[in-house]
Design brief:
Blueprint lengths: L1 E6 L3 H11 L5 E7 L2 H8 L6 E4 L8 H11 L5 E5 L3 H10 L4 E4 L4 H14 L5 H10 L14 H11 L4 H8 L3 H15 L4 H10 L8
Parallel strand pairs: 1-2, 1-3, 3-4, 4-5
């Protein structure tokens, strides 16, 4: 039996995933969490074979939760299941150690296939993501500038794009303001941007944030 820990902030989504997985007798969702804090607390009490993790949680980024899981439970595989298309977060998720990335438009059969492949062989890469990974090692293919950012830089960029001030970013990420400003300078340099307004425009253009946020 494959034991699954499901982390998503929408009860309807969790119910849908559980229903989709119920068709396979070899899979069981043993626990659910609706936010990052609950997820990390429960991981200390249960022993899942795989975590299914959303990108967007109410109290933190799923990417930060992924980072924490990799640090505290390095052998525990994580499958990202997100509303965001692959081109937005899949590469960053894999860089952080995710074992796969699927969108919530994925059919139940593929979700089940991904879970079983990850548990037995470690990774599940869709055909489109496989092509993107191949492009990433081809120097003639130009990847989006945000893919050059380190994870912490990426976090800071997203928070800046959402309108957070350096002090707020520092408090949220457990950094000091000087470090945040250093990240900001690195972001501007790597992405060839000149202002916070440029960051907002870039994030909106590439669908990294919602325009109504």
């Amino acid at each position: 039996m494959i034991k699954i820990f499901l982390v998503d902030d929408h009860p309807i989504v969790r119910a849908g995933v559980i229903k989709a997985l119920s068709s396979d007798p070899d899979i069981s969702v043993i626990a659910e969490a609706s936010n990052a804090r609950q997820a990390m607390d429960l991981l200390g009490e249960i022993a899942p074979d795989i975590v299914i993790l959303d990108i967007t949680l109410t109290d933190d980024s799923g990417l930060r939760v992924l980072e924490k899981i990799r640090q505290q439970y390095p052998a525990l595989p994580v499958l990202m299941l997100s509303m965001h298309p692959e081109e937005q977060y899949a590469m960053m998720s894999l860089k952080l150690g995710a074992s796969g990335y699927l969108t919530k438009k994925t059919l139940p059969d593929e979700l089940i296939l991904a879970i079983k492949k990850i548990v037995t062989r470690g990774k599940y890469i869709t055909e489109t993501l496989s092509e993107k990974l191949a492009d990433a090692v081809n120097v003639n293919i130009e990847n989006p500038p945000h893919e050059s950012l380190a994870f912490r830089e990426f976090q800071v960029m997203l928070m800046m794009a959402s309108g957070a001030a350096p002090k707020e970013i520092a408090e949220n990420l457990g950094l000091n303001v000087k470090t945040v400003n250093t990240y900001r300078a690195n972001i501007m340099l790597k992405m060839n941007l000149l202002s916070n307004a440029d960051i907002v425009r870039y994030a909106v253009k590439h669908n990294l944030i919602n325009q109504d946020e």
